[in-house]
Amino acid sequence: QVQLVESGGGLVQAGGSLSLSCAASGRTFSRYAMGWFRQAPKKEREFVAAISLNGGSTYYADSVKGRFTISRDNAKNTVYLQMNSLKPEDTAVYYCAAPRIFAIATMDLRKYDYWGQGTQVTVSS
User: Fold this and answer.
1) Contact 14, 124 (CB under 8 A)
2) SS (H, E, C) 25-90
3) pLDDT for 2-50, tens place per residue?
4) Cβ-count burial of 65 within 10 angstroms (0-12 exposed, 13-18 middle, 19+ buried)?
5) What is the pLDDT of residues 73-94, one digit of tens each?
6) Are strands 10-13 and 18-24 parallel, antiparallel or unpaired?
7) 58-60 and 119-124: which strand pairing?
8) What DSSP element (H or E) covers 68?
9) Alpha carbons 9 and 18: distance in angstroms, whole number
10) pLDDT above 70 covers what percent of the chain?
């Protein structure tokens, strides 16, 4: 199993940028694809971005494509989400997550077994 801890959330004005980090425990981080999800008040948790085990493939929700970038550094056991051109509708709690070991990256929330505690991102208008 892996334990995940997000950081980097905060308050930013529309058009600004934030960079989120997710630190993972263990020496098997490279055996997991990783994803970012978010949940706004009164809304269901939704897919944001995902990345393959070695970072060779990335996937994005249409709502963030071209603005957000997911990346990972397996040597540091960390996955990142760079968020640019932020909009008020990006306001949510952001979670990093991992599916079962060696599973491929996916946008399907049901495929993720391990979750961080979340970090709040608030974008003001």
Assistant:
1) yes
2) CCCCHHHCCEEEEEECCCCCCEEEEEECCCCCCEEECCCCCCCEEEEEEHHHCEEEEEECCCCHHH
3) 999 999 999 999 999 999 999 999 889 999 999 999 999 999 999 999 9
4) exposed
5) 999 999 999 999 999 999 999 9
6) unpaired
7) unpaired
8) strand 68-73
9) 7
10) 100
